[in-house]
Specification:
Blueprint: H1 3-20, H2 25-32, H3 35-59, H4 64-75, H5 81-88, H6 93-120, H7 136-160, H8 162-190, H9 200-224, H10 228-239, H11 243-253, H12 258-290
Helix pairs in contact: 1-5, 1-7, 1-8, 3-4, 3-6, 3-9, 3-10, 4-6, 4-12, 5-6, 5-10, 5-12, 6-7, 6-10, 7-8, 9-10, 9-12, 11-12
Length: about 290
């Protein structure tokens, strides 16, 4: 794990812990009573976005490595960052956490399955076919270290130390959000050599691809008729893929192909921008309704 990945992991752990300070076990009890909302959040991740991406790559005439990267990102589950963005956007955070946990387990089987059939059935990428191996221990460790442990610790502190929780909740939330924004800014500066006019086509592809994920999440929420609070979680889960997992797979199994790395890296930056933009807009809507 690189220093950059360690820093991002630390930021995410802090953010998940700060989110957990505002949750209660009863929130997860409510989610368990309506599993339909969890299924609604999983369908965009594992069926709709992969299927739509596969169709798009068949229709578009893109370089094979670009198409392979799109297919790989679409096959990856959402990450723990989606929980933080959902919380900031005042969506159902417990639902978001539940979807992320289930998706991480399902990804052990569905990510290799989806990626393999999509890349094999696309003439432009069939020659890129590799037996995609997902390390179950790596996924389990990620799930435990970045989601389960800080979430459990936050719930424990909120339950046992309500006074301390009330004092640290808002300052910690502000700090973790600032740390995330600082990480993005530093990352843009470090990768500024990639931010040239030559990558504008790839950036446009990522923006449209990410937008499709968000729209598919919204459409699924409408179809399942979940309430607005749950819909926010489903939309974010639909549009925030685990690009870090994709980058790891590209590094190990595709020899860090530059075209694939650019797509996955741009996803890692853009889905935060789009997710936070949605979250801010939802907060403004809520503020107007309160006035």
């Amino acid at each position: 794990m690189t220093v950059q990945q360690l820093i991002l992991s630390a930021v995410l752990v802090t953010m998940v812990f700060s989110v957990a300070l505002e949750l209660r076990l009863v929130d997860f009890t409510r989610v368990a009573q309506k599993p339909r909302a969890v299924v609604c959040g999983l369908i965009p991740q594992f069926i709709l976005l992969p299927g739509a991406t596969w169709l798009a790559t068949l229709w578009l005439d893109l370089p094979p490595n670009t198409e392979a990267a799109m297919l790989l990102v679409a096959a990856c589950p959402g990450g723990s960052l989606s929980n933080v963005v959902t919380h900031f956007g005042r969506g159902n955070t417990a639902l978001s956490v539940s979807i992320s946990a289930v998706a991480s387990v399902m990804a052990l089987f569905l990510t290799p399955f989806n990626f393999t059939w999509m890349i094999a059935s696309n003439p432009a990428t069939a020659s890129w076919l590799r037996e995609l191996a997902i390390d179950p221990l790596a996924i389990l460790w990620s799930l435990l270290a970045l989601l389960a442990l800080p979430m459990a610790l936050g719930l424990f502190v909120a339950h046992r130390l309500p006074g301390a929780t009330e004092r640290m909740r808002k300052p910690l939330a502000r700090f973790s959000l600032f740390a995330l924004l600082a990480f993005i800014a530093i990352g843009l500066v470090r990768e500024r050599h990639l931010l040239t006019a030559q990558i504008m086509p790839q950036l446009l592809i990522v923006v449209l691809h990410n937008g499709a994920g968000l729209l598919l999440g919204w459409g699924c929420a409408l179809l399942f008729r979940v309430d607005a609070w749950d819909a926010r979680a489903v939309i974010i889960e639909g549009g925030m893929q685990n690009s870090g997992l994709a980058l790891g797979i590209i590094a190990v199994q595709f020899n860090a192909d530059l075209g694939m790395v650019i797509i996955a890296s741009l996803w890692g930056i853009w889905h935060i921008v789009s997710g936070m933009t949605l979250a801010v807009s939802w907060r403004r809507i809520d503020a107007r309704h309160r006035d």
